[in-house]
Amino acid sequence: MKIIGVAFLIANLICVPCIYASTNHLPEPKTSVSPFDKTSVSGFNANPDLVIEDIVKKPSDIIFIEWLYCRVKNIGDVTAEGWIDIEVDVIWMLFGKIPIKIVKSFTGNAYLEGGVQPGEAIDIFFAEEEWLPRFGFYKLSSVVNPNGNIPEKDLGNNFYEESFFVLFGRWFWLE
Fold it and tell me: What residues pair up with 2 in beta bridges, in sequence order?
């Protein structure tokens, strides 16, 4: 176990300056919604409000493979009608603290007949566990309704992040 830890440390110390020198900055997120853009609706106007509650792993139809979903909940006053989109970036983190590079990006969407009612949650698929990195510290950074296709009460709460450590393809969520 110590050999793996030392190898990981050496790989991070050697590779990180090379990556930083070649990019010279982190890539910008692919979302069009700013975390500072808060649109509030008050009075008689009621809108849905979508939030990502959690990243969920579920068994797939294929043995030994799990699927990853964003659990999206409508905490607004009315039904969210139409397609609900998500974007998820997998960010490589140096020692679990310093963002280095977006290594994968995923999108997903779902349509629920009749819309997502207030208080109701749906799971939107975005990746198989096999598609994700096999070793290191990472952060999943996700956003629901990134293009603002569904009018909402508050666009500022559409973001969700969760950190984890991957060892030989097994994901360990960091609290």
Answer: none
pLDDT tens track for 110-168: 999 999 999 999 999 999 888 889 899 999 999 999 999 999 999 899 999 999 999 88
The domain covering 46-173 belongs, at the CATH homologous superfamily level, to: Immunoglobulins (2.60.40.10)
Q: Which amino acid is at 153?
A: K
pLDDT in tens, 27-76: 444 444 444 444 444 444 689 999 999 999 888 887 778 899 999 999 99
Q: For residue 138, with 0-12 CB atoms within 10 Å meaning exposed, 13-18 middle and 19 or more buried, which class applies?
A: buried
Answer for the pair 88, 164: CB distance below 8 angstroms, yes or no.
Answer: no
Say how many Å lie between the first and final Cα of the chain, rounded. 22
Instruction: Record the pTM.
Output: 0.71
14-45 b/e (C-beta count within 10 Å ≥ 16 → b):
eeeeeeeeeeeeeeebebebeeeeeeeeeeee
66 token code pair:
């799990």
